[in-house]
Automatic annotation (TrEMBL):
Bilayer topology: Multi-pass membrane protein
All copies of domain Rieske, residue ranges: 246-337
Segments for region (Disordered): 1-48
Function of the protein: Iron-sulfur subunit of the cytochrome bc1 complex, an essential component of the respiratory electron transport chain required for ATP synthesis. The bc1 complex catalyzes the oxidation of menaquinol and the reduction of cytochrome c in the respiratory chain. The bc1 complex operates through a Q-cycle mechanism that couples electron transfer to generation of the proton gradient that drives ATP synthesis.
Family under the similarity heading: Belongs to the Rieske iron-sulfur protein family.
Organism field: Pseudoclavibacter endophyticus
Comp. bias (Polar residues): 12-22
Compartment annotation: Cell membrane
UniProt keyword annotations, A-Z: 2Fe-2S, Cell membrane, Disulfide bond, Electron transport, Iron, Iron-sulfur, Membrane, Metal-binding, Oxidoreductase, Respiratory chain, Transmembrane, Transmembrane helix, Transport
Protein name according to UniProt: Cytochrome bc1 complex Rieske iron-sulfur subunit
GO molecular function list: 2 iron, 2 sulfur cluster binding; metal ion binding; monooxygenase activity; oxidoreductase activity, acting on paired donors, with incorporation or reduction of molecular oxygen
Major location (coarse): membrane
Regions of compositional bias (Basic and acidic residues) in chain numbering: 38-48
Organismal lineage: Bacteria, Bacillati, Actinomycetota, Actinomycetes, Micrococcales
């Protein structure tokens, strides 16, 4: 025993006496008594069969609505197709496809949640943790649990509800199948053919992007870079984006002694002026960074580098082939013009190619 400052005895309190005062309540600090589970409150659908039937009918309606939305999605793909002549048609196509797919998935989700919340058995349980060995007893118990879950959920008993869910889920992938299947159409040109044909042709002038001003050879000084499109492109309405994506070109001028041209390509340049596709041969990003001192072109997406002095061969990065070169010359007025279209496909190399271009 110890004494306090007034000479009184001090003693250690027992565990049952150690309490903490919180207002008027005294709570033991050594632990608490398990209060158990709260009293079960039955749902309306547990006590009223008519309410349960109404909920069941509504869930069935949601599943059939999902099925109808899936059918609508497939129909919308053909009712509002993407018109190659009108890029604005993409808006209607995407909007109605998105609405149909969203509605079909959302109604399945809402229906499944309502099924579990209002119709499946509602009782509390405590499940002890145990090791997960796959013993025969464990497997037998798992079978019992699945059988019990089937009985309590009504999955095997509520046939119309179950079949509605199965039908809606089975129909859900159909829009995706239709969309992906339509990517292949024997009547459409192969990607390599589309990429091999651009607006460049013999005598087409090189004009500045985006203002469309023709470029004279005398305008291109050593070290300068011009972003170029074919003359007439800006006059297009529907095909402008598609054609521009294929036809954009970078125009540069180098000292002629720096060019290391192959014999059959020496006529493709004009007094050190060269033109190359701006579309990277890796994944199609715009190659727009030019290092004047090294004469390298850099793709900012994945850092592929091309050497302009040697027909834009790849010197670094994941690009699989050089940038396609546009053969150029000048017309009678001194303006730069194309000699022909590109002699090889532009764009990424991952497109399946059926031609052999030895250029």
């Amino acid at each position: 025993m110890a004494e306090d400052e007034h000479g009184g005895e001090l003693r250690t309190a027992t565990s049952s006496e150690r309490t903490v005062s919180r207002g008027t309540a005294l709570l033991p600090t050594d632990g608490f008594q398990n209060p158990g589970l709260p009293e079960h409150r039955p749902r309306v659908t547990d006590t009223d069969p008519r309410a349960a039937k109404r909920v069941e009918r509504f869930i069935i309606f949601l599943f059939w609505l999902s099925f109808a939305a899936t059918v609508f999605t497939v129909a919308a793909y053909f009712i509002w197709p993407i018109d190659r002549e009108d890029i604005t048609s993409v808006r209607a196509n995407n909007m109605f496809l998105g609405l149909g797919i969203a509605l079909s998935m959302m109604t399945i989700g809402i229906g499944a949640v309502m099924w579990s919340k209002y119709l499946m058995k509602d009782h509390e349980m405590v499940e002890s943790r145990h090791k997960t060995e796959g013993s025969p007893a464990t497997r037998a118990r798992a079978v019992e649990v699945f059988q019990q879950a089937n009985e309590e959920s009504g999955f095997g008993r509520r046939t119309l509800l179950r079949n509605s869910l199965i039908g809606a889920v089975l129909a859900l992938p159909i829009p995706g199948i239709v969309l992906f299947r339509d990517l292949y159409n024997g009547n459409n040109p192969a990607p390599v053919d589309l990429l091999h044909e651009t607006m460049w042709d013999e005598g087409v002038r090189l004009v500045r992007d985006p203002i469309g001003t023709p470029i004279k050879a005398s305008d291109v000084t050593i070290g300068s870079v011009f972003h170029v499109i074919p003359d007439g492109l800006i006059d297009l309405e529907h095909h402008m984006l598609e054609e521009k994506a294929k036809a954009v070109v970078l125009l540069m001028r180098l000292p002629e002694e720096r060019l290391k041209e192959e014999e059959h390509r020496k006529s493709w340049s004009y007094n050190g002026i060269v033109a190359y596709s701006k579309v990277c041969t890796h994944v199609g990003c715009p190659v727009a960074l030019y290092e004047q001192q090294t004469h390298h072109l850099l793709c900012p997406c994945h850092q592929s580098q091309f050497d302009v002095t040697e027909h834009c061969k790849v010197i670094f990065g994941p690009a699989g082939r050089p940038l396609p070169q546009l053969p150029i010359t000048v017309d009678g007025e001194g303006y730069l013009v194309a000699q022909s279209d590109f002699l090889e496909p532009v764009g990424p190399s991952f497109w399946e190619r059926k031609h052999d271009y030895n250029v």
